[in-house]
Amino acid sequence: MAKRMATPALAGFTDIFSASSTDGERVAEVALGELHAPDCHPFRVTDDEAMTQLAGSIRDFGVREPGLARPRPEGGYELLCGNRRKRACELVGLSAMPVIVRELDDDSAAIAMVDSNLQQREKLLYSEKAWAYKMRIDALKHRGIKADCNSADEIAAQTGDSRSKVFKLIRLTELVETLLDKVDARELAFNTAVELSHLDYDEQFTVVDAMAKHGANPSLSQAVRFKKMKQAGTLTAEAIDGIMSEEKESPVSEAKITLHYRKYFPPDYSPKQVEAVIIELLKAWRETQTASA
User: What is the DSSP string of 144-198?
Assistant: First the structure.
């Protein structure tokens, strides 16, 4: 029986940034103009309050922890970790920052970038987590490691997200940018977005158009109906528009219908239609009880 390859655990800060001269690594002051963000970098760099605080710390004390970079074939360095520190250095007028220069293949670079940023960043957007988790698991798969469950467990242990949530977050990478931005802005509920991620891009854009037309976001119940109609092959632009035009039920009543009753009804039934059928059944049941009394 072939021996199963172990899934690498998330590296700790010391593991990622410890430089070993025997491995050909070096710590160097590198000009900011020579440091470039990776093409696939899921972590945003914004000039917010946290950036102002970081810039103040660097102005007063310097860059206390070096970044992590690897040489680029075309020259300069790919800055895997330290892009926020680089921006803070620019804000306070520095021209260079310390980095650990390390030779890394693409998969190792992706894993190091994700692990270091997950360790160091306290607040992450849904989209940042989604793409980071996906990149780490994809890199391990590319190495031939069956990493889905084990890597999800490692991510869960480090971040506090459950394994189920890790996989739900990865589903968000299937969303069109407009919907993903709404999740980041807390304008679209997380679980609703996960359900919408099962639609193809054209269907998602149709949902976006319907949202703009009706001035409303889909509820969880509506998103579940979209997914079930998609699976049944009955989801059309007209169906999406019709469902989005419905008057919204309260979140509590919709959740109860979704969890307890929805599986017994066609996917295109609205909460009101479900309620109407249940009421008719109860009336019929009451009549039988009265007749037998």
Answer: T---HHHHHHHHHHHHS--HHHHHHHHHGGGS-HHHHHHHHTTSS-HHHHHHHTT
Q: Which fold has domain 13-171?
A: 3.90.1530
Would you list the domain boundaries of the chain? Answer: 13-171, 175-292
Please compute the mean of the pLDDT values over residues 180-202 and round it to a whole number. Answer: 96
Report residue 54 as tokens. 């970081």
Share of the chain above pLDDT 90, in %: 53
Residues contacting residue 262 through CB under 8 Å, at least 6 positions apart: 221, 224, 274
Task: Identify which of 141, 139, 138, 117 has the alpha carbon closest to the alpha carbon of residue 129.
Answer: 117
Cβ proximity of 78 and 69 under 8 Å: yes
Model confidence pLDDT, tens digit, residues 256-282: 555 566 667 776 677 777 778 888 888
**C-beta of residue 109 within 8 angstroms of C-beta of residue 81:** no
pLDDT, tens digit, for every residue of 45-62? 989 998 999 999 999 999
Give the whole-angstrom CA distance, residue 99 versus residue 88.
Answer: 15
d(CA 171, CA 176): 11
**Of 68 and 262, the one with more pLDDT:** 68
Distances (CA, A) of 195 to 122, 169, 264: 27, 11, 19
Q: What is the torsional sign of CA 173, 78, 70, 123?
A: negative
Q: Are strands 77-81 and 35-36 parallel, antiparallel or unpaired?
A: parallel
Quick one: pLDDT band at residue 149, thresholds 50, 70, 90? Answer: low
User: What are 283's two structure tokens?
Assistant: 């009336």
